[in-house]
Amino acid sequence: MALVVQKYGGTSVGDADRIRAVADHVSRTLDDGNEVVVVVSAMGKFTDDLMRLADDVSPMRPPRELDMLLTAGERISMALVCMALAARGVESASFTGSQAGIITDTDHTRAKILEIRPDRIREALDSGLVPVVAGFQGVSTDKDVTTLGRGGSDVTAVALAAALKADVCEIYTDVTGVFTADPRVVPRARRIAKVSFDEMMEISATGGRVLMLRSVELARRHGVPLHVRSSFTWEPGTWIVEEDPTMEEAVVSAITDDTSEAKITVGGVPDRPGVAARLFRELANRGINVDMIVQNTGANGMTDISFTVAKTDLDVSRDTCNQIKGDIGAADVTTDDNIGRVSIVGAGMKTSPGVTALMFETLYKHGINIEMISTSSIRISCVLRADRVADAVRYLHTAFGLDAIEF
Amino acid sequence: MALVVQKYGGTSVGDADRIRAVADHVSRTLDDGNEVVVVVSAMGKFTDDLMRLADDVSPMRPPRELDMLLTAGERISMALVCMALAARGVESASFTGSQAGIITDTDHTRAKILEIRPDRIREALDSGLVPVVAGFQGVSTDKDVTTLGRGGSDVTAVALAAALKADVCEIYTDVTGVFTADPRVVPRARRIAKVSFDEMMEISATGGRVLMLRSVELARRHGVPLHVRSSFTWEPGTWIVEEDPTMEEAVVSAITDDTSEAKITVGGVPDRPGVAARLFRELANRGINVDMIVQNTGANGMTDISFTVAKTDLDVSRDTCNQIKGDIGAADVTTDDNIGRVSIVGAGMKTSPGVTALMFETLYKHGINIEMISTSSIRISCVLRADRVADAVRYLHTAFGLDAIEF
Known about the structure:
Chain A has helices at residues 16-31, 46-57, 63-70, 72-87, 119-126, 152-163, 197-205, 213-222, 275-285, 314-328, 355-365, 389-399; strands spanning 3-8, 35-40, 92-95, 102-104, 113-116, 130-134, 137-140, 145-147, 168-173, 194-196, 226-230, 238-241, 254-258, 261-270, 290-297, 302-310, 332-336, 339-345, 372-376, 379-385. In chain A, strand 4 (102-104) and strand 5 form a beta hairpin.
């Protein structure tokens, strides 16, 4: 008997029909001899509707109250899932984040889980009930309702799976798994059957849209196997697991793309110790996440520092750079929000020295200029003009032999 | 400095505009030097929408899950009220039933409050915040979310006012107070400025639609003055207070009507001890509330027992009577759902012996037949044909001098 945590996203519980389909699937999973814990998101666009309502009511949205507001959606969907289960003769009980023992810090709207005390969930399982838990929410050490921020329902599911030592955490969504590239960009992209945590982290970090980096990290830390699959077709999807020494490592597993960032260049900086430290400390103090950083020192002892940030952080980042420009002796600050990033990810890269060369050659052959490069042991990312990103993904997908065979 | 509990019903927080108007009024109340605790219902018809959604999803609605579902509405409205208050510079904090310390029994969908532990509400008040509390909900001794049934938000407000020893509990609604009769039936009905708890209980019990009997009882037990008023005009409404020896008692304060009941007659019953006891015990065992009861023994030692029940309980009541008909030796069971009840209520009745006579004469003069009569020390109720109820209310309203002067 396996213990399965099943997380259903917003589209998976989007209306009465979908909720009944979820109940059917939970019932099938039980019939196959498993124990099931369900984690649900709010229905479809309900949370967006609540945000619009808040916008109508007031320009001020105290974070504590925003959390109180936004957690209403999961209560609705979990109660409805329990009702649909009851109609199938499956006994269940819903649990809010607080009732499920999801204890967080007090950082409203983006709280972090400190501890899980799943006593009530375990009791429910022991008495033969299916616990249905509200995703995305917890209770703070001050006993206030908190939310876990973007991708929060996945975090709830993975954290609960870890606390309950579940055999697998299934993430049900509206796509059939993780693909070798975004199928909207590359029609011949294939679903990946199995991928390691390390590769999945790189995929998530560089533009894979199915899972947030945060939940993959959490799953890796606790060794919780993830299975990303569709609640529309119910077919097996992508397994994300510990790397297995016997696993044949794909040289390149996936090509990802991301056009959500902008580039800032601080130019003509004297090449002396402490300049970069000062710059990135100031940005960090303003809560800005810097992604890629490239620094090249010229012959004249001057250097240009380029880095990328989320487009939404561009204005604050530019202002910050301009404020300290004088202090660090920089000549100018320029920005460019017309860039995109293409990455290739693959655990086999570690032992295949030709990968970097093939990537650069492929881009060169098609006249695509590389503006910045960053690498990890299992990833290479290039910053390009935004309008060449889709082409680059397609050419690389073909070059690395990932295209599905056409019949 | 007075402590005011303000309860806002569904129409009072029906949309963004109404919610802002509520925030303005709370702010004004504070400016007048008061402390305020707010209790809110769900917005407009939101709870009805959730019930429809539940109907779509499943024919089975486990009460625990129904409570989880239905309590989402108050969370939304209370968070929005706090946001609107923030925009006016008023610091506030929302509290669920559980956070407000509203401890109930485990009787889901119609829980009773066992105890209020308003520590967090008091703390909030002491630190200068306006607590905004979800009406209608509590947490059971099993730590599950419960709802308080019909009129539950009023119950929350009155119970909190009692626990906090508030100076007044203001019930904001879409009418301007309690009237001498239903203004839809009697256009010349007047708002009552002040009424005693005893009178208000009779008014609520016999068809007054503004306050449920349950909250008036609770307010009387704890001596919490109620003020029923409009959140659309904000003008002073009706005060419901302890009877005051100096108060001049109106002979008749209000005429009420109710067509929600049906009559059952168990005919030809032998007049011997235990028959009525058996009959009403059987009905009570099926959870049926019997309202008026009339028994007349004829010369032949046989008796007819007539009683009224809610129309929604008619079928079960009829079946119950038919099942025990043989046991109690009754001849027949007949039902009539075409009846209505008209009542006159007034504390001055106790000392004015002519009231009953005037009521009967008025009805007689207009050819209205009385089918059943029941009385308390401050109320007389008559059962009539349903189609004569509105006429009866109007004639009695005039006869007892309650009509507003027309200009």
